[in-house]
């Protein structure tokens, strides 16, 4: 099993600009970056047909907070999907995503095999025993 490193805690929001303003101006977090991701690999990786999203990464004294606003045209699904406002996920980084994925026990539910997004980040999502979303990524 590979060593996992905490990368981020992700929050899905309905209005990224409003959320950034709150976390930056009200809570004092520094904005590290803003970017957009779309494309087939991203949509497959998150398990949402046609998904694209805008992201902001903020620094909470060394802990990265990821705010995500999915394109309103993205296919909306019932509660429990990563593109629903209020959804949370834990992001963990590995050096070798394919090796990590290959070593997962067969009973761990995954959203997809590892995917390379337009930004070059490799991702896969899985669920913990209580159904929480866990993103495992390789930069």
From TrEMBL:
InterPro entries: Glyas_Bleomycin-R_OHBP_Dase (IPR029068), Glyas_Fos-R_dOase_dom (IPR004360), Glyoxalase_1_CS (IPR018146), MMCE/EMCE_epimerase (IPR051785), VOC_core (IPR037523). Residues 5-139 form the VOC domain. The keyword Oxidoreductase applies. One of its GO terms (biological process) is L-methylmalonyl-CoA metabolic process. One of its GO terms (molecular function) is metal ion binding. Keywords: Dioxygenase, Metal-binding, Oxidoreductase. This is Catechol 2,3-dioxygenase. It comes from Halorientalis regularis.
């Amino acid at each position: 099993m590979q060593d996992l490193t905490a990368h981020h805690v992700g929050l899905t929001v309905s209005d990224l600009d409003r959320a950034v303003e709150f976390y930056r101006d009200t809570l004092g977090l520094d904005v590290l970056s803003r970017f957009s991701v779309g494309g087939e690999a991203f949509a497959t990786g998150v398990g949402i047909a046609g998904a694209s999203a805008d992201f902001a990464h903020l620094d909470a004294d060394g802990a990265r907070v990821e705010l995500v606003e999915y394109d309103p045209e993205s296919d909306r699904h019932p509660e429990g999907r990563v593109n629903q406002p209020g959804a949370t996920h834990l992001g963990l980084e590995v050096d070798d995503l394919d090796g990590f994925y290959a070593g997962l026990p067969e009973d761990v539910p995954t959203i997809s095999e590892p995917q390379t997004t337009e930004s070059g980040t490799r991702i896969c999502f899985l669920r913990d025993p209580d159904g929480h979303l866990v993103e495992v990524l390789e930069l």
